[in-house]
Specification:
The chain has 267 residues and is α+β, with helices and mostly antiparallel strands. The protein folds into two domains: 110 residues, Butyryl-CoA Dehydrogenase, subunit A, domain 2 (Beta Barrel), CATH 2.40.110; 142 residues, Up-down Bundle (Butyryl-CoA Dehydrogenase, subunit A, domain 3). 41% of the residues lie in helices and 21% in strands. The strands form three sheets. Strands 2-3-7-6 form a four-stranded antiparallel beta sheet, with no helix packed on it. The protein has a three-stranded mixed beta sheet with strand order 1-4-5, covered by helices on one side. Helix 1 runs antiparallel to helix 4 and helix 2 runs antiparallel to helix 3. The longest helix is centred in the middle third of the chain and has 37 residues.
Amino acid sequence: MSGGAIAAIAMTEPGAGSDLQGIRTTARRQGNGYVLNGQKTFITNGQHADLIIVVARTDPGAGSRGISLVVVETDRAEGFRRGRNLDKIGMEMGDTSELFFDEVFVPADSVIGGTEGRGLHQLMEQLPKERLMIALESLAMIEAAMRHTIDYVAQRSAFGERVLDFQNTQFKLAECKTEATIARVFCDDCVARLLAGTLDAATASVAKYWVSEVAQRIVDTCQQFYGGYGYMNEYPIAQMYKDVRVKRVYGGTTEIMKLLIARTLEA
Protein backbone atom coordinates (compact mmCIF):
# COMPACT_ATOMS: atom_id res chain seq x y z
CA MET A 1 0.00 0.00 0.00
CA SER A 2 1.98 2.96 -1.28
CA GLY A 3 -0.72 5.59 -0.79
CA GLY A 4 -0.18 6.68 -4.37
CA ALA A 5 -3.85 6.44 -5.35
CA ILE A 6 -7.21 7.29 -3.81
CA ALA A 7 -9.84 4.56 -4.13
CA ALA A 8 -13.62 4.44 -3.97
CA ILE A 9 -16.25 1.75 -4.15
CA ALA A 10 -19.37 2.63 -6.13
CA MET A 11 -22.34 0.61 -4.93
CA THR A 12 -25.30 2.91 -4.26
CA GLU A 13 -27.46 4.29 -7.05
CA PRO A 14 -30.32 6.83 -6.99
CA GLY A 15 -32.81 3.95 -7.07
CA ALA A 16 -30.85 1.27 -5.21
CA GLY A 17 -29.30 1.62 -1.77
CA SER A 18 -29.60 -1.22 0.71
CA ASP A 19 -31.06 -3.46 -2.01
CA LEU A 20 -27.96 -4.02 -4.14
CA GLN A 21 -29.84 -6.45 -6.34
CA GLY A 22 -31.75 -3.42 -7.64
CA ILE A 23 -28.73 -1.80 -9.29
CA ARG A 24 -29.10 -0.79 -12.94
CA THR A 25 -25.50 0.07 -13.90
CA THR A 26 -24.35 -2.37 -16.59
CA ALA A 27 -21.01 -3.68 -17.85
CA ARG A 28 -21.64 -5.02 -21.35
CA ARG A 29 -19.07 -7.33 -22.92
CA GLN A 30 -17.56 -5.79 -26.04
CA GLY A 31 -14.48 -7.09 -27.86
CA ASN A 32 -11.61 -7.47 -25.42
CA GLY A 33 -13.33 -5.61 -22.58
CA TYR A 34 -16.50 -4.17 -21.13
CA VAL A 35 -18.54 -1.01 -21.67
CA LEU A 36 -19.97 0.55 -18.52
CA ASN A 37 -23.17 2.59 -18.40
CA GLY A 38 -24.93 3.90 -15.33
CA GLN A 39 -25.05 6.33 -12.43
CA LYS A 40 -23.88 6.09 -8.82
CA THR A 41 -24.50 8.36 -5.83
CA PHE A 42 -23.35 8.87 -2.22
CA ILE A 43 -19.87 7.67 -3.21
CA THR A 44 -17.18 8.45 -0.64
CA ASN A 45 -13.99 9.82 -2.27
CA GLY A 46 -15.85 10.20 -5.55
CA GLN A 47 -14.44 13.65 -6.30
CA HIS A 48 -10.83 12.53 -5.89
CA ALA A 49 -10.74 8.81 -6.62
CA ASP A 50 -8.10 7.56 -9.06
CA LEU A 51 -9.44 4.02 -8.93
CA ILE A 52 -13.11 3.11 -8.53
CA ILE A 53 -14.56 -0.36 -7.96
CA VAL A 54 -17.94 -0.24 -9.68
CA VAL A 55 -20.74 -2.66 -8.83
CA ALA A 56 -22.34 -3.44 -12.18
CA ARG A 57 -24.53 -5.99 -13.93
CA THR A 58 -22.58 -8.15 -16.37
CA ASP A 59 -25.61 -10.41 -16.93
CA PRO A 60 -28.91 -8.51 -16.54
CA GLY A 61 -30.94 -11.72 -16.66
CA ALA A 62 -29.08 -13.60 -13.92
CA GLY A 63 -30.36 -11.75 -10.84
CA SER A 64 -27.88 -11.68 -7.96
CA ARG A 65 -25.52 -13.95 -9.93
CA GLY A 66 -25.25 -11.41 -12.71
CA ILE A 67 -23.41 -8.76 -10.64
CA SER A 68 -19.66 -8.18 -10.91
CA LEU A 69 -17.08 -5.77 -9.48
CA VAL A 70 -15.37 -3.79 -12.24
CA VAL A 71 -12.31 -1.61 -11.69
CA VAL A 72 -12.22 1.80 -13.41
CA GLU A 73 -9.00 3.81 -13.54
CA THR A 74 -10.39 7.33 -13.86
CA ASP A 75 -7.43 8.88 -15.70
CA ARG A 76 -7.99 6.43 -18.57
CA ALA A 77 -11.78 6.30 -18.56
CA GLU A 78 -13.26 8.27 -21.45
CA GLY A 79 -16.95 8.81 -20.74
CA PHE A 80 -16.48 8.87 -16.96
CA ARG A 81 -17.77 12.00 -15.27
CA ARG A 82 -17.90 13.21 -11.68
CA GLY A 83 -21.15 14.88 -10.68
CA ARG A 84 -21.89 17.05 -7.67
CA ASN A 85 -19.99 16.94 -4.44
CA LEU A 86 -23.15 16.45 -2.38
CA ASP A 87 -23.93 18.96 0.37
CA LYS A 88 -24.16 16.97 3.62
CA ILE A 89 -25.32 18.06 7.07
CA GLY A 90 -22.23 16.47 8.65
CA MET A 91 -19.01 14.58 7.82
CA GLU A 92 -17.89 17.61 5.81
CA MET A 93 -14.24 16.54 5.86
CA GLY A 94 -14.92 13.92 3.17
CA ASP A 95 -16.50 14.28 -0.25
CA THR A 96 -19.62 12.28 -1.14
CA SER A 97 -20.33 12.37 -4.84
CA GLU A 98 -22.41 11.48 -7.85
CA LEU A 99 -20.62 9.50 -10.58
CA PHE A 100 -21.63 8.93 -14.19
CA PHE A 101 -20.48 6.25 -16.62
CA ASP A 102 -21.39 6.84 -20.27
CA GLU A 103 -20.01 4.15 -22.56
CA VAL A 104 -16.86 3.79 -20.46
CA PHE A 105 -14.61 1.08 -21.90
CA VAL A 106 -12.45 -1.01 -19.55
CA PRO A 107 -10.25 -4.02 -20.40
CA ALA A 108 -11.49 -7.55 -19.67
CA ASP A 109 -9.13 -8.02 -16.72
CA SER A 110 -10.90 -5.17 -14.90
CA VAL A 111 -13.39 -7.68 -13.45
CA ILE A 112 -12.17 -8.47 -9.93
CA GLY A 113 -11.46 -12.17 -9.53
CA GLY A 114 -11.38 -12.72 -13.28
CA THR A 115 -14.85 -14.30 -13.35
CA GLU A 116 -18.20 -12.62 -13.92
CA GLY A 117 -21.07 -12.95 -11.46
CA ARG A 118 -19.11 -13.08 -8.21
CA GLY A 119 -19.64 -9.45 -7.24
CA LEU A 120 -22.40 -9.87 -4.67
CA HIS A 121 -20.53 -12.72 -2.99
CA GLN A 122 -17.33 -10.65 -2.92
CA LEU A 123 -19.21 -7.73 -1.33
CA MET A 124 -20.85 -9.96 1.26
CA GLU A 125 -17.43 -11.30 2.25
CA GLN A 126 -16.17 -7.82 3.10
CA LEU A 127 -19.30 -6.12 4.47
CA PRO A 128 -18.91 -7.60 8.00
CA LYS A 129 -15.51 -5.89 8.25
CA GLU A 130 -16.98 -2.61 6.98
CA ARG A 131 -19.85 -2.79 9.46
CA LEU A 132 -17.45 -3.45 12.33
CA MET A 133 -15.43 -0.43 11.21
CA ILE A 134 -18.57 1.73 11.47
CA ALA A 135 -19.25 0.30 14.93
CA LEU A 136 -15.70 1.27 15.92
CA GLU A 137 -16.16 4.78 14.49
CA SER A 138 -19.33 5.07 16.58
CA LEU A 139 -17.52 3.80 19.67
CA ALA A 140 -14.73 6.36 19.19
CA MET A 141 -17.35 9.09 18.98
CA ILE A 142 -19.05 7.84 22.16
CA GLU A 143 -15.79 7.93 24.08
CA ALA A 144 -14.82 11.35 22.72
CA ALA A 145 -18.24 12.80 23.56
CA MET A 146 -17.99 11.44 27.10
CA ARG A 147 -14.48 12.82 27.58
CA HIS A 148 -15.37 16.31 26.34
CA THR A 149 -18.61 16.42 28.30
CA ILE A 150 -17.14 15.29 31.62
CA ASP A 151 -14.46 17.98 31.29
CA TYR A 152 -17.13 20.58 30.48
CA VAL A 153 -19.55 19.79 33.33
CA ALA A 154 -16.63 19.65 35.80
CA GLN A 155 -15.81 23.29 34.94
CA ARG A 156 -19.26 24.73 34.26
CA SER A 157 -21.19 26.16 37.21
CA ALA A 158 -24.91 26.77 37.67
CA PHE A 159 -26.82 27.89 40.78
CA GLY A 160 -23.54 27.99 42.70
CA GLU A 161 -22.56 24.39 41.96
CA ARG A 162 -20.63 22.52 39.34
CA VAL A 163 -22.96 20.95 36.78
CA LEU A 164 -21.14 17.68 37.47
CA ASP A 165 -22.32 17.76 41.09
CA PHE A 166 -26.02 17.67 40.19
CA GLN A 167 -27.52 14.22 40.71
CA ASN A 168 -29.22 14.34 37.31
CA THR A 169 -25.85 14.90 35.63
CA GLN A 170 -24.27 12.04 37.54
CA PHE A 171 -27.13 9.64 36.76
CA LYS A 172 -27.23 10.52 33.05
CA LEU A 173 -23.47 10.21 32.65
CA ALA A 174 -23.47 6.96 34.66
CA GLU A 175 -25.97 5.55 32.16
CA CYS A 176 -23.78 6.73 29.28
CA LYS A 177 -20.65 5.25 30.82
CA THR A 178 -22.37 1.91 31.32
CA GLU A 179 -23.44 1.71 27.67
CA ALA A 180 -20.02 2.94 26.53
CA THR A 181 -18.33 0.18 28.53
CA ILE A 182 -20.62 -2.50 27.09
CA ALA A 183 -19.97 -1.16 23.57
CA ARG A 184 -16.19 -1.21 24.13
CA VAL A 185 -16.17 -4.80 25.41
CA PHE A 186 -18.39 -6.01 22.57
CA CYS A 187 -16.38 -4.19 19.89
CA ASP A 188 -13.12 -5.56 21.26
CA ASP A 189 -14.58 -9.06 21.08
CA CYS A 190 -15.67 -8.46 17.47
CA VAL A 191 -12.16 -7.27 16.55
CA ALA A 192 -10.73 -10.46 18.07
CA ARG A 193 -13.19 -12.50 16.00
CA LEU A 194 -12.27 -10.60 12.85
CA LEU A 195 -8.57 -11.28 13.41
CA ALA A 196 -9.35 -14.96 14.01
CA GLY A 197 -11.46 -15.13 10.85
CA THR A 198 -14.65 -15.98 12.76
CA LEU A 199 -16.62 -12.73 12.60
CA ASP A 200 -19.93 -13.65 11.00
CA ALA A 201 -22.32 -11.29 9.20
CA ALA A 202 -25.00 -11.39 11.92
CA THR A 203 -22.59 -10.46 14.74
CA ALA A 204 -21.15 -7.61 12.65
CA SER A 205 -24.70 -6.43 12.01
CA VAL A 206 -25.43 -6.47 15.75
CA ALA A 207 -22.33 -4.35 16.36
CA LYS A 208 -23.11 -1.86 13.59
CA TYR A 209 -26.78 -1.51 14.58
CA TRP A 210 -26.44 -1.34 18.34
CA VAL A 211 -23.29 0.78 18.71
CA SER A 212 -24.44 3.35 16.13
CA GLU A 213 -27.82 3.67 17.86
CA VAL A 214 -26.13 4.03 21.26
CA ALA A 215 -23.75 6.63 19.82
CA GLN A 216 -26.62 8.83 18.69
CA ARG A 217 -28.29 8.61 22.12
CA ILE A 218 -25.10 9.37 24.02
CA VAL A 219 -24.03 12.26 21.80
CA ASP A 220 -27.50 13.77 22.14
CA THR A 221 -27.41 13.33 25.93
CA CYS A 222 -23.95 14.88 26.15
CA GLN A 223 -24.87 17.82 23.94
CA GLN A 224 -27.77 18.70 26.27
CA PHE A 225 -25.32 19.41 29.10
CA TYR A 226 -23.75 22.20 27.04
CA GLY A 227 -26.99 24.17 26.76
CA GLY A 228 -26.77 26.77 24.01
CA TYR A 229 -23.04 26.23 23.61
CA GLY A 230 -23.72 22.71 22.40
CA TYR A 231 -25.39 24.18 19.32
CA MET A 232 -22.33 26.22 18.39
CA ASN A 233 -19.93 24.84 15.80
CA GLU A 234 -16.91 25.94 17.81
CA TYR A 235 -17.58 23.12 20.29
CA PRO A 236 -16.62 19.56 19.25
CA ILE A 237 -19.91 18.18 20.55
CA ALA A 238 -21.79 20.12 17.84
CA GLN A 239 -19.73 18.49 15.09
CA MET A 240 -20.28 15.08 16.67
CA TYR A 241 -24.03 15.74 16.74
CA LYS A 242 -23.95 16.34 12.97
CA ASP A 243 -21.61 13.46 12.18
CA VAL A 244 -23.21 10.72 14.28
CA ARG A 245 -26.53 10.65 12.43
CA VAL A 246 -25.20 8.97 9.30
CA LYS A 247 -23.67 6.08 11.26
CA ARG A 248 -27.16 4.53 11.39
CA VAL A 249 -27.49 4.81 7.61
CA TYR A 250 -24.29 4.12 5.67
CA GLY A 251 -22.89 0.62 5.44
CA GLY A 252 -26.46 -0.64 5.74
CA THR A 253 -29.28 1.01 7.65
CA THR A 254 -30.35 -0.05 11.13
CA GLU A 255 -33.43 -1.62 9.59
CA ILE A 256 -31.33 -3.74 7.20
CA MET A 257 -29.12 -4.82 10.11
CA LYS A 258 -32.22 -6.01 11.97
CA LEU A 259 -33.34 -8.00 8.92
CA LEU A 260 -29.95 -9.72 8.70
CA ILE A 261 -30.00 -10.51 12.43
CA ALA A 262 -33.60 -11.79 12.22
CA ARG A 263 -32.59 -14.35 9.57
CA THR A 264 -30.48 -16.12 12.20
CA LEU A 265 -33.38 -16.59 14.60
CA GLU A 266 -34.61 -20.11 15.19
CA ALA A 267 -38.09 -21.09 16.36
